[in-house]
Amino acid sequence: MWNLVxxxxxxxxxxxxxxxxxxxxxxNGFNNQALALDSNDTSALVDTGIHLANSxxxxxxxxxxxxxxxxxxxxxxxxxxxxxxxxxxxxxxxxxxxxxxxxxxxxxNTIALVSKGADIAHLGKYNEAxxxxxxxxxxxxxxxxxxxxxxxxxxxxxxxxxxxxxxxxxxxxxxxSTNALSxxxxxxxxxxxxxxxxxxxxxxxxxxxxNxxxxxxxxxxxxxxxxxxxxxxxxxxxxxxxxxNTNPLNNKATALNDxxxxxxxxIYDDQKYHDTTVEFLK
Length: 282
What we know:
The protein is an all-alpha fold. The protein has helices at residues 4-37, 42-54, 58-71, 76-88, 92-105, 110-122, 126-139, 144-156, 160-173, 178-190, 194-207, 212-224, 228-241, 246-281. It folds into 3 domains: 42-133, Serine Threonine Protein Phosphatase 5, Tetratricopeptide repeat (Alpha Horseshoe), CATH 1.25.40; 141-209, Alpha Horseshoe (Serine Threonine Protein Phosphatase 5, Tetratricopeptide repeat), CATH 1.25.40.10; 221-282. Helix content is 82%, strand content 0%. It starts with a helix and ends with a helix.
């Protein structure tokens, strides 16, 4: 017989789910009713688009955002929303077009600036991305997003010390930023400071144990310190979260290769010692 406490918990969960579904139905019904009464209600169109985007339907969201733009083409928030949804769909060039439209109306739109910078960096143009981060930081120096993104751009350009400067600035504002922590760990790895890198990966994992970047990065750092079998455990944890992530797969292959080479050297050394001993005994 089931424990009454468990039964009560199940009933409570069902009630919470029912309330959540009811709210969603009410929300959709409210927006649909508003659109039925006034198809030119931009607020209802945008709200519907945002709701669809939050549900993962980015194509459907763009349809409603475009309907709103047909009425108000200078709505920068909606232009940026389309850009963000196009990014989610993998259309980087299309997204930049909408960020440019938003910036033509409002040159100080920090979301458009940072998002355009990130897309330019995604296209491999790291030097061209940095001015957009700089402009966003001139508007809001405490925005951690352009700080971290500028650090990443510098890292891709090989300036790991410069990258760490910006990660540290972000961490001074938000010490729990797992992105800044794991990115700093990666920069330290490139500088050969594997022990320091592990410290920052551990901080990120203490906040988010399923942070794939930190797991993969820690595996690389541990591998470089010569603990190949332990490195593989971190690769396996990352693969358990995302079996299609090629980074831990490649790193695991490297660790296994390093482990195999170490075993060959150990066997060779043992054999050499054995041969020398036999020769001495003769």
